[in-house]
Structures are given as structure tokens and as C-alpha cells.
Design a protein that fits this description.
alpha+beta, 6 helices, globular, 12 strands, 3-stranded antiparallel beta sheet, 5-stranded mixed beta sheet
């Protein structure tokens, strides 16, 4: 889904390794949505380059991090491991909280927020970008308003060359009322989260977008496991594409041995995957 479209409304979107896309089934894919019959939509990717399978990560073990309750305005760690950190926060909050979080946005970010059609999406964009600036500022030892970002050809954000600790890598994802920031001091990082909601087109998307082995393992799942299995595979592909800085519809090549893959739960009812280059 795109940043100002309702859940499960797939439209054509030229994707990038952007910093604040959100799903269901985020905007990194180039999709054409075409009506097959009233009430039914078929999806086909314009271009597709991801074909190699990744080893299916084990479901995240139950631990205290998975049971932390997120609160509006509070940034909470949900995963920490060997130079990798994933922080989660709520992006629906009272207007005064959103205003306080968004004080540090620059003029370009404010214009981008104002350009969003829905008030809910404007608030969520401000909350996500403001909290990202807070997280980066805390790592860099500077003010959130002084954080400078630059963007790759397809929109992947990174710290400006003028920033201290330029080796700090980050990735952002949001879905529903939750956003996460993944940080790595070692290698490129990508993260994606999805709310566990029905995806009527899941089988069609899996047939078009999963590798042969991934699709085979997906179709072997029982009906009760199919949705979670689909979202685990989807978030993995999204995270890889964001780490590489390109949309999933863009031609690319990668080797599963190059990536460490970890699943996590940012909040009950959500599935997340973070990847770090080995």
C-alpha cells in the first residue's frame, strides 16, 4: 500500500529503498492493479528480479522484548544483537504529542507531510520522521533538527557525509499504527513490518513474486499458517530490497549467504523482519 491509500488498495507505484513506507505490502513494488471482475483485483509486478530463496528464519522466541507494551511518544527497543538494534514506537498519538515530535522536521519534510491527502497519514509521517531524527540524534550526539539526510537514486536515505559516525546505517518501516527503526554499526541494514491482516491476493502475489522454493514451501502450509507464512516471506523480501536501496521490482542480484535474517515482533499482531549484510 502507498503512504496515502487505504489498506489493501494496490496501485502502480515506482518503489525505492525509502525510509518510511508502510504496508500492507508496502510501496517498494511496481504493481499494476487491474480489475478482473467487480470486487476482485489482480496484481502483476512490472519488473521482478528477486528469485533466490532465503533460509526460512525460525519464529522469534518468546521473551520480554516481545511483551513490552508500546506507548505513544515512547521509543522502545524490541531487538538488540551484535551491533544491531531495532526500536519501535506508536505513530498514532494526540495532536500535541505529534506537534512536539515534529518540531525538528526541516522545511522539505513539512512540505511532504502537508502534501499527504489524509490527516491520519500526515500525523503518521510527522511522527515517524520526527522519531527517526530523535533516534539518529541520540546516536550522533547532536540535536534532532541538525540531523542531515541524503538520498540514493531510488530514495534510500542515509546520513549526510557531514554527519559524525557516518558508518551508522539505518532503515525504517511502518504499518498501521506502529513504526520501527533498525540501526546497524556494521553493515547495511533493512527492516520491514506488517500488521497481521487478511491479504486476499496473497496466493496470487506469492505465485508472481516468490522464488520457486519459497512458493513451494508457502503452498505447503496449512490454511491456519498461510497468512503468517506469507507475511514472513514478504517482510524478508522487503527488508532485503531496502538494505540494497532499491525497489523489489528493480532488477537485482543477491546471495542468501550474504545476509543475516532475524524475525521479531514489534507489537502483538505484527510481524517484522530485519536483515544485516554479513
Amino acid at each position: 500500500m502507498t503512504s496515502d491509500c487505504p489498506e489493501l488498495d494496490f496501485i502502480q507505484f515506482s518503489g525505492a529503498g525509502g525510509d518510511d513506507r508502510h504496508g500492507v505490502l508496502g510501496a517498494s513494488w511496481n504493481f499494476h492493479a487491474v480489475s478482473a471482475r467487480p470486487g476482485h483485483r489482480l496484481i502483476r509486478p512490472v519488473r521482478f528480479g528477486l528469485s533466490q530463496p532465503l533460509v526460512e528464519p525460525a519464529p522469534p522466541p518468546p521473551n520480554f522484548l516481545n511483551k513490552i507494551e508500546l506507548r505513544p511518544g515512547i521509543i522502545t527497543p524490541v531487538l538488540e544483537n551484535d551491533g544491531l538494534e531495532v526500536l519501535a514506537f506508536m505513530i498514532d498519538a494526540e495532536q500535541n504529542v505529534i506537534r512536539e515530535i515534529g518540531v525538528c522536521l526541516n522545511e522539505g519534510e513539512r512540505r511532504r507531510a502537508e502534501g499527504l491527502r489524509l490527516e491520519r497519514d500526515r500525523r503518521r509521517f510527522v511522527a515517524t520522521r520526527g522519531q527517526l531524527r530523535r533516534v539518529l540524534a541520540s546516536k550522533l550526539g547532536i540535536s534532532p533538527s541538525d540531523v542531515e539526510l541524503e538520498y540514493g537514486r531510488l530514495g534510500k536515505p542515509h546520513l549526510s557525509h557531514r554527519m559524525p559516525a557516518r558508518d551508522l546505517r539505518f532503515s525504517v518501516s511502518r504499518s498501521g499504527d506502529v513504526a520501527v527503526v533498525a540501526l546497524s554499526t556494521r553493515q547495511e541494514v533493512g527492516v520491514d513490518i506488517e500488521a497481521v491482516l487478511p491479504v486476499p491476493e496473497a496466493d496470487e502475489i506469492a505465485a508472481l513474486c516468490f522464488s520457486a522454493s519459497e512458493y513451494g514451501s508457502y503452498t505447503a502450509l496449512g490454511p491456519e499458517d498461510r497468512l503468517e507464512g506469507f507475511l514472513r516471506r514478504w517482510t524478508r523480501l522487503e527488508a532485503i530490497s531496502k538494505a540494497l536501496g532499491c525497489g523489489l521490482g528493480q532488477p537485482l542480484s543477491w546471495d542468501e549467504r550474504d545476509w543475516a535474517v532475524r524475525g521479531f515482533v514489534p507489537k502483538p499482531g505484527y510481524i517484522g523482519t530485519v536483515v544485516v549484510r554479513n
